[in-house]
Write a structure and sequence with these properties.
Length: about 80
């Protein structure tokens, strides 16, 4: 069994190689983006305006967590 650090390096190598060989990056991620948007639409019971706000709240929450993590590490907030 490989040590975790080597598994991470192998995974990074595979990911970078795969993306380097991808001509249409948008087409490759379309299913994931669609599922992500549908998650918010389902949570909003089909209301697209509410879904947009839920999506914005999701990213605002991520930004807040990121700022707190940077502050804890002593970086810029």
């Amino acid at each position: 069994m490989l040590p975790p650090s080597e598994r991470v390096l192998r995974a990074k190598l595979a990911a970078h190689t795969s993306w380097a060989n991808t001509e249409d990056r948008t087409a490759r991620t379309v299913n994931g983006r669609k599922a992500f948007d549908e998650k918010f639409l389902a949570e909003a019971n089909g209301d697209p305006v509410r879904a947009a706000h839920l999506r914005k709240a999701f990213f605002a929450r991520l930004a807040l967590k990121s700022a707190a993590a940077r502050r804890r590490r002593g970086g810029a907030a």
